[in-house]
Write a structure and sequence with these properties.
Layout lengths: L2 E3 L5 E2 L10 E6 L5 H8 L10 E3 L5 E3 L6 E2 L6 E2 L2 E2 L5 E6 L3 H4 L6 H18 L6 E3 H4 L13 H6 L21 H11 L9 H12 L10 H13 L2
Parallel strand pairs: 1-5, 3-9, 3-10, 4-9
Antiparallel strand pairs: 2-6, 4-5, 7-8
Length: 234
């Protein structure tokens, strides 16, 4: 796997231990092009970066050495962990995002992402339930990598977790078990479960696990998916 060095100055200079690295966070760039993405992720004024950037041609750029903390996660939480930059490896995928014309991720982009994740997962002993979306760890602020990201395909290839297909009659019928749904999300690892933002949180869960219908409603299928995941990840 060929990786191109492309220096970003946006990182914390203190070296972190390999044991502190427990997560991989996947993002999309949300910018018009690879060139613009590289410019922003390596600009001192932007104060953002990631460890890796994968272009639509599949080219992998290493912007920040993994031994340093890159600035990609922002305010974030997952399980007992807060401000996840210090615990994670950030991977950005070039994609215009919802603002500029959300695209399907390319086959070579996903293929190389899987190869990179397998390498990092093995080296740092990262568990599948800690390979996450930006929208998992900051569900009120972020929606990337979004509903076109192939989480199920990654899971088939040994990266991340995805529930098996379920068959439910009246699966889109609204349920009253809202409290159970959010309890399940808490068990899975989600935080920021403030009822004020419940629609955003439900939609982000659906963006990952029920991508064909993102309606922000806790229906029978959405609830069942949360139950399956809460039992399988704990």
């Amino acid at each position: 796997m060929e990786i191109t060095k492309y220096y970003s100055p946006n990182y914390a200079e203190k070296v972190r231990s390999g044991k502190s690295i427990t997560m991989i966070i996947i993002h999309y760039t949300g910018m018009q092009s690879e060139r613009e993405s590289l410019k922003r992720l390596t600009s001192v004024s932007s104060k953002v970066s990631a460890h890796y950037l994968i272009g639509r041609s599949g080219k992998i750029f290493n912007l920040v050495d993994v031994k340093y903390v890159a600035w990609h996660a922002g305010k974030s939480m997952w399980k007992k962990n807060k401000n996840l930059n210090k615990n994670s490896i950030g991977i950005e995928l070039v994609n215009k995002g919802h603002k500029f014309g959300y695209q399907k991720f390319t086959k070579i982009q996903i293929k190389n992402l899987i190869s990179l994740c397998k390498k990092l997962k093995k080296k740092y002993k990262i568990k599948n339930n800690f390979i996450l979306a930006h929208s998992d760890i900051a569900p009120i602020r972020k929606i990337d990598p979004g509903e076109k990201f192939p989480w199920q395909y990654l899971s088939i290839n040994g990266i991340g977790n995805y529930p098996k297909k379920i068959d439910i009659k009246n699966k889109y019928k609204k349920t009253q078990n809202n409290g159970l749904f959010f309890k399940n999300l808490y068990k899975i690892g989600y935080r920021y479960l403030n009822s004020k933002y419940k629609t955003k949180i439900i939609k982000n869960f659906q963006r990952k696990y029920r991508q064909k219908k993102i309606n922000g409603i806790i229906d029978f299928e959405t609830l069942k998916l949360s139950q399956i995941l809460s039992k399988s990840l704990n």
